């Protein structure tokens, strides 16, 4: 009898215990309530509608775990490991197919914005495998988690949350129905909400910007984004380099080009192929480290730096550049073989 009573008591308590493990709805947080009022005052949002939406979402522990840098990195950064994730057979083959299927759009984007077709292809390939993996997180919940429960970047993500709600209203979308990355990036090119509102274009001419379903809008928007950040038509991106001496100071100076090729050569940094760029062109020294292997050095020019405005990582930018080069070369060779 005691056993049956104890089992009944446990059965009664378990649902309560499970509910207690889930955080309270965002609508119950004072900060969120103040945000809702602010959205009403600044942009005319309905308070009850926003409150209802925030009542449907909770702080996402997975989002918060993924956004945090590891307290103790499990291993040293490896350029070779990073590169293999993005410059590989499937992404190269996917890039060729994507180019074949969207050649006219890529050609038009390059003509308008000056960004080579292969760079556009490579960014979309690295970001979402050409639209195949656009994210499965609720964007509203992800951005709210980062805006209200991640103090180190709360200001940035609160701005993105504001832009996301504005974007959803402008497009007539239900913010609860939109999925993306754990950081709130959306669609085929993985634009953050502010980037979509500031840089995206209606490239298919249907009167609506839709980066989740329109490949044309994604292609045009990637090209315009890079152009707006200073892409130089016809200029080089990066070239291999050789380093004599200790490059620590030049590496510490960052990836924004500040010294000319000539000035870098005076400091012991030389292009592997001297004719690759004008001696007066600005560049930065890029180091690509792999544990147990010699560090690869490159000179990154202004266009390399522009790619890092999409993702602020030299590994990312170099992966985009190298995938672009491989896809362009293979496509060129195939076309030449058919002539």
UniProtKB/TrEMBL annotation:
UniProt entry tagged with the keyword Transmembrane helix: no
Entries under InterPro entries matching the protein: Lysozyme-like_dom_sf, Lytic_transglycosylase_MltB, MltB-like, SLT_2
Secretion signal span: 1-20
Record's keyword terms, sorted: Signal
CDD domains: Slt35-like (cd13399)
Pfam families for the chain: SLT_2
Limits of the Transglycosylase SLT domain: 28-325
Domain of life: Bacteria
NCBIfam families: MltB
Protein name stated in the entry: Lytic murein transglycosylase B
Organism: Candidatus Accumulibacter phosphatis
């Amino acid at each position: 009898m005691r056993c049956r009573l104890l089992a009944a008591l446990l059965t009664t308590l378990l649902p309560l215990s499970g509910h207690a493990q889930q955080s309270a709805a965002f609508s119950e947080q004072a900060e969120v309530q103040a945000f809702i009022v602010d959205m009403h005052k600044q942009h005319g949002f309905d308070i009850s509608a926003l409150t209802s939406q925030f009542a449907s979402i909770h702080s996402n522990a997975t989002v918060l775990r993924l956004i945090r840098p590891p307290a103790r990195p499990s291993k040293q950064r490896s350029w070779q490991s990073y590169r293999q994730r993005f410059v590989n057979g499937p992404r190269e083959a996917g890039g060729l197919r994507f180019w074949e299927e969207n050649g006219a759009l890529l050609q038009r984007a390059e003509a308008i914005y000056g960004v080579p077709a292969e760079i556009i292809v490579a960014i979309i390939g690295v970001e979402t495998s050409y639209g195949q993996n656009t994210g499965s997180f609720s964007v509203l919940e992800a951005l709210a988690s980062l805006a209200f429960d991640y103090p180190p970047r709360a200001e940035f993500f609160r701005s993105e949350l504001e832009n996301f709600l504005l974007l959803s209203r402008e497009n007539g979308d239900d913010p609860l129905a939109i999925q993306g990355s754990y950081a709130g990036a959306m669609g085929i090119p993985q634009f953050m909400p502010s980037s979509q509102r500031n840089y995206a274009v209606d490239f298919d001419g249907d009167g609506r910007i839709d980066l989740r379903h329109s490949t044309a809008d994604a292609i045009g928007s990637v090209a315009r984004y890079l152009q707006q950040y200073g892409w130089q038509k016809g200029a080089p991106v990066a070239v291999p380099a050789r380093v004599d001496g200790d490059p620590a100071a030049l590496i510490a100076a960052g990836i924004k080009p500040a010294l000319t090729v000539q000035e870098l050569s005076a400091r012991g940094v030389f292009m592997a192929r001297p004719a690759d760029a004008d001696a007066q062109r600005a560049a930065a020294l890029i180091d690509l480290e792999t544990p147990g292997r010699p560090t690869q050095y490159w000179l990154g020019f202004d266009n390399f730096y522009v790619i890092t405005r999409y993702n602020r990582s030299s590994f990312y930018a170099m992966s985009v550049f190298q995938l672009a080069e491989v896809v362009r070369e293979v496509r060129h060779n195939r076309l030449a073989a058919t002539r």
